[in-house]
Every structure is written in C-alpha cells, then in structure tokens.
Amino acid sequence: MYPPKHHQDYNTETIKSVAKAYPFATLVSSDGSVPFITHAPLIFHNDKLVGHIDRNNPHVNLLKENHFVTAIFQGPNTYISPSIYTTKQLPTWNYIIAHAHGKAKTLVNPDEIKQSIVRMTEFLEGSNQKFILDIDDPRMDRLVPYIHCFEITIDSWEGKFKISQDKTSNDIENAKKELIQNNQKQVADFVNQMYELHFSSH
C-alpha cells in the first residue's frame, strides 16, 4: 500500500475531519480510459457526501446510477527544508490529504435539492453565520433546473498524512510549525499575486 503505513491515518473520524475542514473537493471518475475531474464543495449529510455541479458539466453522466467516484480533500501541504531539522535530512514535501471512495446517486426531488443547498450554505457559513438562505427564496426555484445534485455513499476512506512521523519529536514539531507558517504566508502571497495578474489583464 502506498504511501507507507507510517504516512497513513486509519482513524475514519480523523480522516473525515480533513473533508470537513477543507470541503472543496476534487472529484475523479473514469469513463473507460477517459478521466473526468471536477472541483466542487461537498458536505456531509447522514454520513454521505452531498454536492452540486452545473447540469451542463459532462461529468454529470458519471455522478449518478452508482458510478464509482473518488473525492479528494487536500489539506495543508508544504515543502520541508532540511534546514528546519535538528538532524541531518533530505528535502521533502509534507501534506494532509483525505480520499473518499464511493458510489454516486442523483438527487432529483426539487425540495430535497433546495434543502441540500440550504444545508450546505449553513455549513459553509460556519458557527458565526452571517447569511441565512431562505428555502422559499424564488431564486432557488429558478436555480434547481440548472444544477445536478448528487450524493456519494462512501465505501472507504484513505488518510494520507505525511507529517514527518519518521523523524525525532523535535523535528516533528519543527515540521508542524513549518506547515502552519508556510501555508499562511503562501496563501496570502499567492492570492494577492493572482488577483493582480487576473484583474490587470481584463
């Protein structure tokens, strides 16, 4: 099995916590030799994953009728320089990733679809909810025909946690600090750069 056992997590609740903290998933399906890849937020409901994508997305044909799908939830990741270690090491990359493998089924009831949108909005708003989506908002009725709502029944979870587990306790702590610091700085710098590049070209 890959990665090595010491770079995996076998506690389902721990693995699911990655999906809850980083719900923007990469959905991967295959139609013969052709891969289909779509990015969309997924949330839990009754221990299944529920999401919505544009009905015109060709991936729709594989997110129904119990087609197999993998959802990838990528948590923090970063380059780890040997300079942070107290022992002599080589450069590496650390990451926290969850894979959910399961089968997709279409949700077709309009009221059920609208409720799933309300539920997702509530989850994504977080504990300090500043916006409440009204299920009776007429815009919801206009939206439903244009989206494909689906749920994924999970067959198995994989937790791929490469966080310097094979190093000394001091080096594990240093790698943890690096993972936190680099993600905070890299996200801020990258978002600022992308906004500048994107909007300056329009």
TrEMBL record:
Short name of any one Pfam family annotated for the protein: FMN_bind_2
Endpoints of the signal sequence: none
Highest taxon listed in the record's lineage: Bacteria
Coiled coil (residue ranges): none
Name the UniProt record assigns to this protein: Negative transcriptional regulator, PaiB family
Species: Aquimarina spongiae
